[in-house]
Design brief:
77% of the residues lie in helices and 13% in strands. With 107 residues, it is α+β, with helices and mostly antiparallel strands. The chain is elongated, with a radius of gyration of 28 Å.
Length: 107
């Protein structure tokens, strides 16, 4: 079910409709508002310039987070592969030990 939320971003009201919760949408809107307000106050950009720069900054953050997530996935896969190899080696060693014990008992 779609939620409708009205929020103020840089002094202008916007109504958003999305499947996400109202609290989540407010959080997203607050982030955009904070980024734009920071740009408008710090360097005195217009609202439209601040919106574009905020979008660029947020896209940059997104791409860096995605890259970080991908690096973590690769690292996790490496750890899982190493754990599987260690488990297989442990199983092989157990079999070898069992065979050696069997030979020792037969003598």
């Amino acid at each position: 079910m779609a939620n409708r939320v009205t929020m103020t971003i840089c002094g202008q009201d916007y109504t958003l409709v999305a499947d996400e919760s109202a609290a989540y949408m407010q959080k997203v809107g607050a982030l955009v508002d904070a980024k734009m307000t920071e740009l408008m106050e710090g360097a005195h950009f217009s609202r439209s310039d601040a919106a574009v720069l905020a979008a660029i900054n947020l896209a940059d953050e997104l791409f860096k987070q995605q890259e970080g997530s991908e690096n973590l996935r690769r690292q996790l896969k490496t750890y899982l592969d190493e754990a599987t190899a260690a488990k297989n080696e442990a199983s092989d060693l157990k079999r070898q030990l069992f065979k050696a014990q069997q030979k020792g008992q037969q003598r």
